[in-house]
Design goal:
The protein has helices at 2-38, 74-84; strands at residues 43-45, 51-53, 99-105, 110-115, 121-125, 129-130, 135-141, 144-152, 158-166. With 169 residues, the protein is an alpha+beta fold. The N and C termini lie far apart (109 Å).
Length: 169
């Protein structure tokens, strides 16, 4: 019985010591904060004993405007950016839906006419955006149109895929 009382007293004393240590630490922190708040001279001393003028800079306030969100998926951000961009009618069609009707080559420029699945014709030239996979008309030559699509491979590097569409005639 006496042994149990001894253990109980030791536990009680250790709890009291812990509480006192905790409260004295909090009091010291509060005094330190109060001293820092009342110090308004703008001059502080470094370890060498020389005085350094305080720059008077207040605390930093984070402004998230025009900064990327580090917790947002970069894939989602890229998809949102693609959705924001206004697309032409040719950019909404798959390349398999387009058929080359005629190619015109002149000394000044090169054009081609493509027909969509509805039978409507569209004039394209080198540099025209075409297809759902961000394709660009890369080159128009006799009998064919080369469309270059940019994609990212599994290593994250940009690669190009060239699709050759030939004319019917």
């Amino acid at each position: 019985m006496e042994r149990l009382q001894h253990k109980y007293l030791i536990g009680l004393l250790s709890q009291i010591i812990f509480i006192l240590a905790l409260s004295s630490g909090m009091a010291a922190a509060q005094e330190k904060a109060a001293d820092a708040g009342t110090e308004s001279s703008g001059i502080t001393a470094n370890t060498e004993g020389t005085e350094i003028a305080d720059s008077g800079v207040d605390e930093y306030i984070y402004d998230p405007i025009d900064k990327t969100d580090p917790f947002k998926s970069f894939i989602t951000a890229r998809e949102e950016k693609e959705k924001e961009k206004a697309k032409t009618y040719l950019e909404t069609l798959e390349l398999s839906q387009l058929e080359i009707i005629v190619i015109v080559i002149s000394p000044k420029a090169r054009w081609a006419m493509v027909k969509d699945s509805k039978g409507v014709g569209h004039v394209i030239k080198e540099g025209t955006l075409i297809g759902t996979k961000n394709g660009v008309v890369y080159k128009i030559s006799e009998g064919e149109v080369i469309i270059r699509e940019e994609y990212t491979d599994y290593r994250g590097q940009k690669q190009y895929r060239e699709i050759i569409k030939t004319s019917q005639s």
